[in-house]
Amino acid sequence: MKLKREKQESSDDNEGSKGKMTLLLALVTLISAFGSSFQYGYNVSVINSPAPYMQDFYNQTYLDRNGEPMDSSFQTLLWSLTVSMFPLGGFVGSLLVWPLVNNCGRKGALLINNLLSIVAAVLMGTSELAKTFEVIILSRVIMGIYAGLASNVVPMFLGELSPRNLRGAIGVVPQLFITLGILVAQILGLNSILGNDEGWPVLLGLTGIPSLLQLLTLPFFPESPRYLLIQKGNEEQARQALQKLRGWDDVDDEIEEMRQEDQSEREEGHFTVFSLCTFRGLRWQLISIIVMMMGQQLSGINAVFYYANRIFEAAGVDSSSVQYVTVSTGAINVVMTLLAVFIVESLGRRILLLAGFGLCCVSCAVLTLALSLQVTVTWMSYLSIVCVIVYIIGHAIGASPIPFVMITEMFLQSSRPAAFMVGGSVHWLSNFTVGLVFLYMEEGLGPYSFLIFCAICLATMVYIFFIVPETKNKTFMEINKIMAKRNKVEIQDDKDEFKDFHRTVSGGQAEEKEVSSSEL
Q1: Phi, psi of 137 (to 5 degrees)
Q2: What's the whole-number mean pLDDT along residues 66-81?
Q3: What is the pTM of this model?
Q4: What residue ranges define each of the domains in the chain, with the CATH number in brackets?
Q5: What does 262-331 look like in DSSP terms, one character per residue?
């Protein structure tokens, strides 16, 4: 017993040493997030500030072609498409996650993805010279495909690279770079910089620079060790990658954990989206990521960022100052997401999710009241600005970053790509919906449109409280066992569940492979 206890203490000490942030792990995290996640945030916000100048370009181009001005309803539709084509492309990109990461690896998928961003940047940067607004809309689709892939592959890649005691903090880093991208786009979009009649094509074209830097540097960093061992079956390469990432030669504990995960999933093969949706053993994991992703996007965050200037102008901010207020909210977003990086491992994922959606819920309710009464009560204008800031804080600490962390943690290697594909598709479809219909919601409902977002935040918070477990500092196998109880599946003994699954993935073939209890 004493020897066993000493061995466990020695193992814990080694785990602590191997769980530190090394220079290589920090560099691959920063390069992956800057080269990919940064552009997601940049392109969410980049067309907000120069919108009037871009719309003038649309009108002038239409007038030059047709000899008559553009109809106002067609102009509204055209601009809504310009905004919403980005998330629609994101949905298409999410559909490519599963085949790309399984065939090209996590790092390979990111490198291939950079080509899309560079092509879109060139097209957008030259759109004014070509006198065509259609190419902007097309480029927004291409950038959306890029962002759809990046927003799913980067959290998966970093989650598989990270030691479990840093997985949450590193998992929030992509969201931090999304907020940095939003802030940089807001700053460069100021009228005095590039948000003007001459500068907006350059503003759109700058998005290709991070991709170029990632394309030149990422090949020198290791691939995901879990991908190398579990999916490629190359233990030696996985061991070498782990040793580089941990700065420590003894990586036997993590290799053994991967072997156990590989053994437990050997009979499952790779999940497709269809098999994931029909597999009883992952039912609540799948429902949870769908609810969290829908809650993340339908809670109104894109309404705030896509139409931030309109919200502040409606709140009484002078039109000459509204850009600077928007930049200040972007800075708050960055600071609060940075705070989430440092507190996620101490407070846990679940508390941040509940606190984040709770703040968003209250903010939407009070914002509705403030916007409704600001005509008769002058100080309500200031309250509405406070509500927007509190909303951004809530989203930054929980609702935005944590769902992607949870997808990485709630699924094992065989089902993780399909899970990201489902979660990413829900994320981008919800994003597309808000971007397309919010302008019409605002025209029809006015300030009461935020009551819809309030109800969605409340429903998501209730679901998380009753269903979603805490995953902090747990291995993937430990989390899988927690969810197995909720799914009412016995991991060790439930042969029938795996037999049913085999019938699904094998296309109903007559031959069925028997699985022993020891293998499960």
Answers
A1: -65, -45
A2: 81
A3: 0.84
A4: 22-221 (1.20.1250.20), 272-505+516-520 (1.20.1250.20)
A5: HHHHTTT-PPPHHHHHH-GGGHHHHHHHHHHHHHHHHTTHHHHHHTHHHHHHHTT--TTTHHHHHHHHHH
